[in-house]
Amino acid sequence: MSLTATTTLANGVQMPWLGLGVYKMDGDNEVKEAVASALEIGYRSIDTASFYDNEEGVGQAIKQSTIPREQLFVTTKVWNSEQGYNETLAAFERSLTKLGLEYIDLYLIHWPVPGKYKDTWKALEKLYKDGKVRAIGVSNFLEHHLKDLLKDATVKPMVNQVEFHPQLSSRSLRDYCSQHHIQVEAWSPLGRGRYLDDDTLQALATKHGKSPAQIMLRWDYQHGVVTIPKSTKKHRQEENAAIFDFQLSDEDMQQLDGLDIDKRYGRHPDEFDYENS
Fold first, then answer.
1. What is the mean pLDDT of residues 208-220?
2. Which of the four CATH numbers 2.40.70.10, 3.20.20.370, 3.30.420.10, 3.20.20.100 does domain 6-265 have?
3. Which residue, 31, 65, 176, 180, shows the most beta carbons closer than 10 Å to its own?
4. What's the gap between Cα 274 and its chain centre?
5. What is the 3-state secondary structure (H, E, C) of 180-193?
6. CA 159 from centroid of its chain's CA atoms
7. How far is CA 201 from CA 6, 111, 188, 197, in A?
8. Mean pLDDT score across all residues of the chain
């Protein structure tokens, strides 16, 4: 297994298990250099968003690379203030132009804006049916959002990207997504680095000759969760990618599962200030 390893989404599209997240990367040189080094290492999945304001930099790095477009998997997202049917269609075109691409591999609703996400989803369904996106999905949707969406959806979300790490394992949500063939994807897979010094992580890192970050990313992978760790530094990107040459035992996995305290380092989808976002 390697950086080219993929999971198969509900519609048959292959999505890499590991990708590069570019949240909070500067829109010009920083993101271009980060994407360029990741592609050189072997990453083929890049995750950006309208809100990150760096789609142009991502697009420039892709354009400058020699990797065929069909080998890349590019994700972007529609922001809260862009939601609604017509607004989303316009937002998609803006993102496509900034990225300089002819299609997007995965387009996500960034957050479940109350009263808007259903119309936004209808726009994603149109983009999907029109062949402008290879797969569509959501981000930060809890079970009740998914249940509500599925009442009217003609196409099920193929991905749900949520905050996920050992202190927030969201077992019930993962089970629900699994039942509906929705691939779970982790943002903030390292818990923003807040507990890399945890005794359990340290002990497992020593046991396997790996870093605590690699232990966490391998835990994601063995739980069948796609992950997109963010790093601007090449040596960190290489470290994050080196998770396919070892395996956590069932006991290791149980120890890591035991770290779950339902702890979020990002915002809770039901407590987000949507009116001012």
1. 98
2. 3.20.20.100
3. 31
4. 21
5. CCCEEEEECCCHHH
6. 9
7. 26, 31, 16, 7
8. 97
| CA–CA separation, 152 and 159 (whole Å) | 17
Residues that are catalytic: 52
Annotated binding site for substrate: 110
Percent of the chain residues topping a pLDDT of 90: 96
Give the span between the Cα atoms of 31 and 27, in whole angstroms. Answer: 6
Residue type, 226: V
Q: Which residues in 96-130 are b (16+ Cβ under 10 Å) and which e?
A: bebbebeebbbbbbbbbbeebbbebbbbbebbbee
Alpha-carbon gap, residue 161 to 159, rounded angstroms: 6
Tokens 């391998």, located at residue:
218
Q: Encode pLDDT of 145-156 as tens digits.
A: 999 999 999 999
For residue 269, the one-letter residue type is: P
Ranges of each domain in the chain = 6-265
pLDDT category of residue 28 using cuts at 50, 70 and 90: confident
Please give the distance of CA 273 from its chain centroid, rounded to a whole number: 22
Mean pLDDT confidence for 243-252: 97
Q: Reduce the DSSP state of residue 108 to 3 states and report it.
A: strand
Buried b vs exposed e over 35-53: b needs ≥16 C-beta within 10 Å?
Answer: bbbbbeeebbbbbbbbbbb
Task: Tell me how far apart the alpha carbons of residues 87 and 81 are, in angstroms, rounded to a whole number.
Answer: 9
Please give the biggest Cα pair distance in the chain: 53
Contacts with 27 (C-beta within 8 Å, 6 or more apart), sequence order: 52, 53, 54, 56, 57
What are 50's two structure tokens? 């309208």
